[in-house]
Specification:
The protein contains nine helices and 14 strands. It is about 40% helix and about 20% strand. The chain is an alpha+beta fold.
Length: about 300
Amino acid sequence: MCELTGLTACKTHSRRIFLQGIEKTKIVMDDPWMECMDHCIAVTKEAGKMIREALQKDISIMQKSSPVDLVTETDQKVETLIISSIKKKYPDHSFIGEESVAAGAPSILTDNPTWIIDPIDGTTNFVHRFPFVSVSVGFTVNKEIEFGVVYSCIEEKMYTARKGKGAFCNGLPIKVSGQEDITKSLVLTEMGFKSDAQNFRTMMTNMESILSIPVHGIRAPGSAAVNMCLVACGAADAYYHIGIHCWDMAGGAAIIREAGGVIMDITGGPFDLMSRRLITASSKAIAEHISQKIQLFPCGRDDTEN
């Protein structure tokens, strides 16, 4: 009797494993990029651990294009970790990484599956140990963003979004505030050194224009990806920026959209990942109001030399 019971249990267990295998295969067939996202989350956690460990040591700082455009050894090590891990598993995929581009690699988006990586979004924050530091990865196919992962690694908040599947923070669903009245909104932006005096004046004038609407306030946490996630989870109602890059925006763009938010160009037109400018908001009304207040200044594109 015991032997029969044991045999029945064994068959039931085997059947359950078989059915789970079928279900897993079906999920992969229905969503071929989900496995890529799972791998991305795993390697992003490793990268976050590397960053937290680096914060316990002396930070070696180097300068790129200006005295405030910084890079550290950790930026480079984290990008190497992420790209080498993904290349090993997906050797035919393409990559656009902040530090790779800084070293001379092209920044051209093609139809090929492409990983767009910012190893440390908020390097200045990292240097000063200011707690908004993130690893940001966006994944595109046919130039469309399929998923995004942003790990605010000091806070240990993992933001994820898969196209059509919703947005999450540490596994819990998130959504935008839904605020439509800009006078009741908290707006995020970033401000920093501009070598062109006119561009600097325009940046400051834009902030004055937004504050004078009026809004509840403006904040500048220092990480574009974290800013987008703060809008996605309802902690802020809008974020705008001119002069950032595709690796700053790709991960957060997926999260904003899946959280029910709006993302558009500064002009109010469609969002262009390579344009180096964006508005994200909890509603179309707020995004459009900001676009009407913002003056443009030249910032070039990521897919050209200008």
